[in-house]
Amino acid sequence: MAYKKRYDGRGFNDTRPIEATAGVIKNADGSAHFKIGKTEAYAAVYGPRSLHPRFMQDPKKGVLRCFYGMMPFSGAGDRVRPGPNRRSKELCLVIQKALMPVLDLSAYPNAVVDLFIDFPQTDAGTRCAAICAASIALADAGFPMRDMVTAVSLGKVEDKMVIDLDYQEEAHEDGDVADIPLAMVPSTGEITLLQADGFFTADDLKGGLADIQPVVEEIAEQMRAAVRARYEG
Questions:
Q1: Any idea what DSSP says for residue 55?
Q2: H helix or E strand, kind and range, residue 203
Q3: Cα separation of 184 and 218, whole Å?
Q4: At what angle do helices 126-140 and 202-232 cross, to 10 degrees?
Q5: Which domains does the chain have, with CATH numbers?
Q6: Tens-digit pLDDT profile for residues 40-55
């Protein structure tokens, strides 16, 4: 079957509306709000501070520790059970691994930087929104970073490659759907996260990566602008 028109009327290479703000949580060392469509993430950074127990310390650099949570009625489906679970632990590891290639914590041996990410509402694309919010928050906290990490989903709905799937597209029942969360360093094109759920061809992925590069750069500029506005205002 052919997927001729997206549910919300966007073009196949268009994202949902994006909002990005730095410095939204007063008592955090760095913080951010990132919203894409109806998916909304808050990120707060605390540290560096001493890491305990000591066996978890790294004498060469600081450790980034991630906490991920969704509010009970934030999703489009059933009520989310509060507290950590298997999925949140997996996402914490995914977010941490996506950010570490740009983050330099060598000045903070034996220390920990805690990153908290919470969602008051979601409509697909949560791990990508989490990475964008976290990247802004870490920059807001003043940690050395060689670039932002920008994330957005790539996908295939029936016969069409699309960017930034929403919940309706993820739940599309009239044909096959593939969802590919992707994180990238905009200045180099380095991919720090690529996961896939569904079926697509190598050509699908190659074409999708070419289409997503300018989108990543546009999102990255909005993220940088959020950090600049925080200190220029």
A1: G
A2: helix 202-232
A3: 12
A4: 30
A5: 18-232 (3.30.230.70)
A6: 999 999 999 999 989 8
